[in-house]
Structures are given as C-alpha cells and as structure tokens.
C-alpha cells in the first residue's frame, strides 16, 4: 500500500473527529478571564482548601484566643485552641472540627430536622444544645434557662452568681390573645400563654363585666394545661355559637404572689353571610386561618379600638367608590 493511501484515511478520520467533538465556547465568560484561567491550577487550590491538610503542631505559633463565651475547643488539626460554638449555633457532629465548628463546654451537637417532610431524605440541621436544661436565678435578678446561658452572661459579668430554680418574677405573657373577627353562629378561641415563677393563675374576663369567665354561661368554656415550656401555662377561652352580644374586649390575666399582668384582644362578630375576606383583605395586612378551623386572626390595630365603648370600623375600597361601614359595635352592650 502506498504511503498516500494510508495518510488520506487518517486525514478524513481527523476531520470526522473534529465534526463529532466541536470546540465549545462559553459566551458568559470574560475574554480576559478566558485567556488567564487555568483549570487545573484552580482545581488544585479548591481541593487544598477543602482538604484537612495539617502540618506539624507548633503550639508556640498558635494565635491567642480571647472573648470565648462558650470556652475553648481544638481546631480542625487538633493543635491550636479556638472559640467553641454557642448554644443554638450550627455544629459538626462528633469530635471533628470540619466545617461549622465544635460546641463549647457543657454542650452537645444534636440533629434537628429542618422539616419533617424531608426527614427521610436526611436533611437535618445540627445545633449546639446545652446538656443541663434546669433554669437558674442570677444575682442580677434574671432567670437563665440553663447553665450555658448563665456561663455566657457570667463571661461578661464575672461576679455573677446563681441559685437553683428561676427567679421569682411577675408573670410574663409569652403569647397574648389575638384580635378575632368572625360571623355570627361560629365558634372562636382565644389563646394565652403565661410564664411565671411561682406558677401563675390565669383568668379570663370581658371588659365591662366583673364575672370571671366562664361563669354560668353554657356557651363559654375555659381550658388550661401546663407548657409548652417549663413554668408556663397555656389557657384557652372558647365561645361557641357566637352572637352580636359576644362582641367586645376579652382580657387574659396572669397572677401570682409577686404580681399580675394582663393582655387584651377584641372580638368582632359580623352578621351571617358577610363576605369578610373580600371586604377587608385590602386594608388588613394580616388575615389568616387558624389551622383546621374557620377562625380569622387580625393583627392590631384593626382600625380603631376604644378602651371602654368598643367600636370597630372595618374600611375598604369599593371598585366604584370609597365608603366606610361600621360592621359591628358594642357601644350598646357596655
């Protein structure tokens, strides 16, 4: 076979390969960057940064670590000290300091599912959790919910001392009742969560009346239980088959031997068939459903809430003209 007969098929094969594997260009890459970009060099740098390459430990070269409220932990190479992570911060599981860091003294790294729907897929967020969860009373009069919180505060105030148990305190309303608007004949529920030590007694009253609810009213009931946190009490006021007469201001009061505190919410009852959503949505920024019920909740203020004679005005814009309509009033009931 002649040399030319061998060379020609090779040339044709080369052309075919060029057609099969074209030379791609990236339109979104800077011309200057394309000229200077070294793929292999940059890849090596990324691998080096992500790798756990540790040299010989020389403690005398370690930087001095200050201001660590959760104590000191070893770095990823186990040589120098660095600040431990605080309670609630993300952390690395186990005893290896790889990405997020190691929890400080008296804490452990625990998995906390971000969303139950993703639990089977292994999507979790590990956070530092204090091992000791007993509350303490500080000499500054503040309650620290666990030992780790106290240590953080003691770092800033070295003379701070504590005793077992929370400080005696006036009740604190952690979750106040919300203003409600619903239609006549429906059921409504107010929630009130109170924290106190000693534990608080929670009462419900309606402004303008001296009776502690439920009184002898068969369509009003009050239920309470401990929690959701320690030294907290949750109380619900339920009104079934509401009427216009139930409109008004309802007050949750928490009381113990130290003092008392209260929070109020307004209930507005609309006539049957009133299209609440379509009417007030443009003017009320927060209008949402209670889970699994038809109760609406509205953030204060609605439009105008008078302290004694309660008049709630819900105003909205009509497509043709503007108008204000009093949907309900309790002036005649107070």
Summarize the structure in words.
The protein has helices at 3-20, 31-36, 39-50, 147-156, 276-280; strands spanning 72-74, 81-83, 107-113, 124-130, 136-138, 143-144, 162-164, 169-175, 179-183, 188-197, 201-206, 220-226, 232-239, 248-255, 260-270, 287-289, 296-298, 311-317, 322-329. With 334 residues, it is an alpha+beta fold. The strands form six sheets. A six-stranded mixed beta sheet has the order 11-14-15-9-17-16, with no helix packed on it. Strands 8-10-13-12 form a four-stranded antiparallel beta sheet, with no helix packed on it. A hairpin with a 6-residue loop joins β16 and β17. The chain has three domains: 65-130, Omega-AgatoxinV; 136-167, no CATH class; 170-333, Immunoglobulin-like (Sandwich). The protein contains five helices and 19 strands. The protein is elongated, with a radius of gyration of 33 Å.
Distinctive features:
single chain, alpha+beta, insulin-like growth factor binding, immunoglobulin domain, disulfide bond, 334 residues, disordered C terminus, signal, elongated, Growth_fac_rcpt_cys_sf, Immunoglobulin-like, 4-stranded antiparallel beta sheet, Omega-AgatoxinV
Radius of gyration: 33 Å
Strand order of the largest sheet: 11-14-15-9-17-16
Structural class: alpha+beta
CATH class bucket of the largest domain: Mainly Beta
Low-confidence stretches: 7-37, 39-51, 114-123, 277-334
